[in-house]
């Protein structure tokens, strides 16, 4: 099943996406599925593997996201313009952080690209003006155009894990 909401006002502030609906696994968060919802935290179960285009974009109160282990990539613009987003807990099977995935998330102060992620697409953290620290794991092979472009003086450090064959 693909899941979305038609009534954002009835959603709980701490949204937990169900792993099953009518006895079948929920595997996809629909495009624009929760765009603009008033949630403050989000937990995605391990059954979900796909987060659609703009699925949680413009959730202006969203502070914390916990991606399940089933998620292999974040969709384009999946969390863009979540201005209060501070914490992202990546699942163990994430391979790709999609284009514009966290664009304009002004409360992110640290970006830790975990082991297993191979690609950080272009503009992934575009204009995240509060980023102070970036940590890149040894598995990262590609960082796209303007992935970490922002207009501020907040950046203090970029750390690349030993053993990364592509970056140092």
Spell out the blueprint of helices and strands.
Layout: E1 2-3, E2 14-16, E3 20-21, E4 24-25, E5 28-29, E6 41-43, E7 50-51, E8 64-66, E9 73-74, E10 87-89, E11 96-97, E12 110-113, E13 119-120, E14 133-136, E15 142-143, E16 157-160
Features:
mainly beta; single chain; four-stranded parallel sheet
Description of the structure:
By secondary structure, this protein is mainly β. It is 0% helix and 25% strand. The protein has strands at residues 2-3, 14-16, 20-21, 24-25, 28-29, 41-43, 50-51, 64-66, 73-74, 87-89, 96-97, 110-113, 119-120, 133-136, 142-143, 157-160. Strands 1-5-7-9-11-13-15 form a seven-stranded parallel beta sheet, with no helix packed on it. It has a four-stranded parallel beta sheet with strand order 2-6-8-10, with no helix packed on it. A hairpin with a 2-residue loop joins strand 3 (20-21) and strand 4. The model has no long low-confidence stretch (mean pLDDT 94).
Any low-confidence stretches, pLDDT <50, length ≥5?
A: none
Strand content: 25-35%
What is Rg?
15 Å
What strand line-up does the widest sheet have?
A: 1-5-7-9-11-13-15
Structural class: mainly beta
- Strand and helix order: EEEEEEEEEEEEEEEE
Instruction: Supply the number of helical segments.
Output: 0
Q: Which sheet architecture does the biggest sheet show?
A: 7 strands, parallel
Average pLDDT figure: 94
| Cα distance spanning the termini | 42 Å
Find the count of extended strands (DSSP E, 2+ residues). 16
Specify the overall morphology.
Answer: globular
How much helix is in the residues? under 10%
